[in-house]
Structure formats: structure tokens, C-alpha cells
Prior knowledge:
The protein has helices spanning 92-106, 121-124, 135-138, 163-167, 208-215, 218-225, 268-278, 296-302, 338-343, and strands at 5-15, 22-27, 30-35, 44-48, 52-53, 72-75, 78-81, 83-85, 127-128, 141-144, 171-177, 181-188, 191-195, 199-201, 229-237, 250-259, 264-265, 281-282, 285-291, 317-323, 330-336. Helices cover 20% and strands 33% of the residues. It is α+β, with helices and mostly antiparallel strands and 346 residues long. It has two domains: 5-128, CATH 2.40.50; 135-343, DNA ligase/mRNA capping enzyme (D-amino Acid Aminotransferase, Chain A, domain 1).
Amino acid sequence: MRKLATIQKILEINSIQNADKIEHAKILGWRVVVEKNKYNVGDLVVYCEIDSLLPPKPEFEFLKDSNYRIRTRKMRGVISQGICFSLDILPLETRWHVQELEKARIMNIPGADGAEGIDVTTALGVEKYEVPIPAQLAGKVKGGFPSFLIRTDEDRIQILPEVPVKYGGLQFIVTEKLHGSSTTYFWRNGEFGVCSRNLQLLEDDKNSMWKFARENKIEEKMVLLGRNLALQGEIIGEGIQKNRYRVKGHTVRFFCMFDIDKYEYLPYDEMLAILEEWNLEPVPCVDWNYKLPHTLDEIIEYGMGKSVLNPDAEREGVVFVRYEAEEQGRVSFKSISNKFLLDNKE
């Protein structure tokens, strides 16, 4: 489950030109507009990421006009992503727990890591905003997303400040993050399955994910390969996310294959070879040999640009992938375009 609300530290506070009541704070890799003089560098706060859906409680009443959803905003010329609250917003028991953890850290008690990073999503009743699924993708539910698979949800670079320190200067594959709907096909011990982001779907000739599978004989190809595998991608086209790529009908572009028995991703080259043999297409590649910058800001900036599929449209962002030594496996994360988020009110 994604940590939507966590305890974080204010890393920086910067003034905003011509702004008397607000200033710009840095939390992890995010920039957030906060009330002026309310926080100091080093303060612990409750930080809620974009896509957080806060409960309709009195303390969040000021968010009612935005349906309690946290989006990317631009205020006085600066980007604000997320929202932060003082620890007073926490339920009493949770607040006490956070304060005790931080007190132990300050006292240098052995093994005490402090409260920074603690997940308070459930304590606050925060949920993830989910884009409504078009009727042709919703399908009939067979069950929850299978436990033997991994959901297709990359972490944003803003919550991974250690990445540029550890991997700066190393080579990554960069692909375009398509704005469609997550699709997973799997073959496991004689069973073929089709899944949306969160659910496994019954076969339905009106469901576009199943139709693509049958039209492209994905089950038959998986059977012939003779391995327990999952193939994951993004379905795009008419009626899906405004079809910004101007695709006729529906198609799926794939970004990873997962070995179910080994519980690990196939190397990118192996996946591409299988896709070519099966006459299926991968997501567009932006750069095969991208040297990762040493700063978060540069990685975030790289997310912006035009779509490979439709140069007239802003891309949603990019995904960085690197395959390390066997014990490390696949390293991946995403950078979402701030321009895309603002233009689409995300």
C-alpha cells in the first residue's frame, strides 16, 4: 500500500516573491507551499502526497471545494505538490507514539530511529484517489489482484532522495510513462488471467483488455513459452484518458515481464526479444543509455517533454529502469511531468 501520509521533516524554507502569507518548503524531494512563519527547518510535520484523498472531516473542511483531493497546484508562480499539517492533526494515540519515538532519537537511545518516515495514512483515514475506469475497461470482477504478482506502480523520484546519491552517473533505460490504464496478463500453472490495476477480471468479450488478449493470442503464446510469467503494460486508445495519443481503437504497450516462480523481473533485453517474437509493442523508449544526474531537481526536470507517440501532446512523465547484479535485481522509479500535472489538474 502506498504511503500517502507520513511523518516528514522540513528540509528547507524559501521565500516566495511578492507573497506575504505563504512560503515554499522542501519535504523529501517535494516542494510545498505552506503558511508563512508556521514551520521552521527541522520541524516534523504530517505530509500528504498528491493523489491523497482526505476524509470529509471538520479539520479538512477547507478542502471540500476540491472534493478533498490533493493535486499539483501553482501558487504565486511556484509549484506546490502535497500538503502538510502540524502533528496536532494526528489522533491522540498516534501523536503520542510519534512524540515518544522522536524523544528516544533525541536522547540517543540505542536502536531509536525517530519518527521520520512513519506511515500515518490509515491513522488519518487517507485513501488514494483513483481515476474512474472507463466502462470498456471495468469488466466483471473475478477477484482481487493476485498475491503472486506485483502491482504496476513505480515510486516517484521525490520520495527517493537517496537515488541520485547512489546511482548518479550510472546508465539507465528511460521509457515514456503512458497515461492509460494498467493491464496485466499472466499464465500460471495452467491458468490464464487478465487484471486491471487492482482486480482480476472474468473473461468478457466487451472488455478491451480481454479483447486485446484474444485478438493477439496472448494466452496461446504464453502456453507455448512454457513458463509461469506475467506481462504488464498500459492500455491506451479511444475513450481512455482523453486518448491524448490519438490511437484508433485500443492497444497495449508493454513495459515489463515478471517471472512468477522466481519472483523477479526479466531483463529488459529478454522482454524485448519475447515481445518482438510475439509481435507486441513495448512502451516508447526515450533514451537507452541515459546517465542519471546527481540531483533530484535534474531528474524531476527530465520528466517533462513531448510524447514519443504524439509530439503534439505533453508526456505524463518517464520511467527509469536499471538492471543490477543478481542480488539487487531491477531498480526503477518514475518522474512525472509537472507541466502535465498542472495542465491536466492532477
